[in-house]
Predict the structure.
Amino acid sequence: MDRNCNTCEPLLGGTSQTSADRAEPLLRAGNTNCGGCGMSIGLQFLSHAIADTPVQMVIPACCGIVTAGPYPYSAYGAPVVAATFASAAAVASGLTAGARLNGEATRVICWAGDGGTYDIGMATLSAAAERNEDILYICYDNEIYGNTGGQRSSATPYGATTTTTPLGKDVEKKDILGIMAAHRVPYAATISLAHPEDAVRKLRHGLHAKGFRFLHMLAPCPTGWKSEPAEGVGLVRKAVQSGLYPVYEIFGGRDLTIDVEPDFSRDALAQYFEAQGRFKAADVDLDRVQRAISENWMELRRRGRRPVTGKFERVSV
Amino acid sequence: MTQELLTANHASALAATLAGRANRSARGFGAGVYPITPQTECIELLCKQDIEKGHVVRVESEHSAMAVCIGFAIGGSRTFTASSSNGLAYMAENVFAAGFYRLPIVMMAVNRTLGPPWNIWVDHGDTLMLRDAGWIQFYCEDNQEVADTILAAYRLGEDARVCLPVMVCQDAFVLSHTIAQTDMPEQALVDKFLPPLDLKHRISLQARTVGGLDGAHENELHRWQQETAMRGTEAVYAEVQTAFEEVFGRKLPDAVVPYRMDDAEFVIVSMGTTHSTVRHVIDAARERGVKVGALRVRLFRPLPVQALETWLEGRTRIAVLDRDLCPGLGGILWSEVRPLAPQGALVQGYVMGLGGGDIRPANIEKVLADLLAREKSERPVLLEVG
């Protein structure tokens, strides 16, 4: 890892428990997640952010609830409601309103995958955002229906093979942050697992801010991505470095800040695709990917606080 | 008590409001609401109420309406929603979920036929589709009964021995949009009748997962707990009836409502407002000397097996009127009542009044004539009333 690279931030002192952390980790030992699961790392970050804040979680039918393990055990160190697939934001709406009626400071968190967010839960999510419910909604996006064995979702990127797109997906993924920002929610942000300080800061802000907060987390799935479990964070770093996964936040649906400046490295982009078996079968057109990145960044620059002077053309390292 | 002229939709909203306010000393009241004809007036009126420690969430679908109730209920609040027909079909996944979570949510359901083709009038197919969802189901005959049953539903469903959601069903337009004189009790009486909800398994801050994975053995035991609770419901309901009469001074109808059954040799079994028409025909037939009585199945889940067996004991001919159709079987009520009839009795099913077909006395007369003239029974027949 190049520590001088501007996409790299000083790492936290590991993501394990510290004395400043909550009494027990949010994701306990004995959970059923695969090795290298990005969602697991995300939960460790969230655990840091929560610290001693009282929370209740709503998790729809997805890997995130399977990992809790069978009744009567729970691998979560917090109360969890296992909701039906499309219902997380609606169940959380009732839960958070009930807490408010009773003057409780409990923060209600939805923890949902991309299927439950981009696809089946979209109407529920959109409605909860429109009502500005007091919920922190976190989407861990592994770009696949992981729990059912790896089918395409509308978060699956162009070129990725899945069990239902054996030749590779031929369309790009949805711009979920754009969709959520268009609801003019108080806070929407993307989180990079390779940038823990930025990630934990956003999780903390998201946890304590009022109204509907949406966080998106690119969560490597070694099983579905056909990548090395140990390389997940490195893959996210490459996605950020290449501009493929922009790290930014939007306040009030309009006020956009870019948090990590990519160098738009073509090499990083190529390595990101090469390191994942899911892109092998399809003849992925990296120029097409690069064009999409450029267009996306043109848009972000226009909307962002920073002037439109940043590099977004190809850069060879 | 105040006498008011109310549709059953409005009576439902007011009953839910009274029950909601009654929980203000506990964890309050929450509702998720979404419009659908012919239930909309209920949630419209609910949205105009000022409920202390209460909150109504206007959601984007019936599926979410029930999900919001689940969220409120799992946090310990008293809850209410209302729906009908395709709304119930769309909601179905979370209706089952509410049953599995064992949350005492109360839902008023206006019975309307499922579509397409679109038709907004009454039949019972929508709520009968949900008969296996782990919900107690009542089918009402008039507006007063709808309001009273909603109040009773909270006391029954929230009883720790029961802990089940309750569906209070009423016939589209025949009740939902028909104005009738209705006694709406005062808040103080409702407060007396409904103890604050203390849901033992509500989530707090303890780290545990509600509704997570179940192995096969845990699953069969959890499911059987539903069955055990259902089987104990009738005994608790009898207590609720007593308490209801003590507080409000009027009776809450039985699980199975008899009419002129004392010496009846023949019986007409039905649900909902069909029974009102049946009673007129029974009166006329009695004047002709025909020993016929009627039963109304008011409580459909749990099915009051023993009460039905007792009422049917010794009767020789039984007509079962189904305002529903289970394609490939016939009538649902028929299929459930038939095994409870005494051996040797002739049991004939009649499917009638689908899609709001107006069931008139002449139609019931035709049923009675057919029942008495039959040499043997056959699979349910369609009796066209449209």
Chain B is about 40% helix and 20% strand.
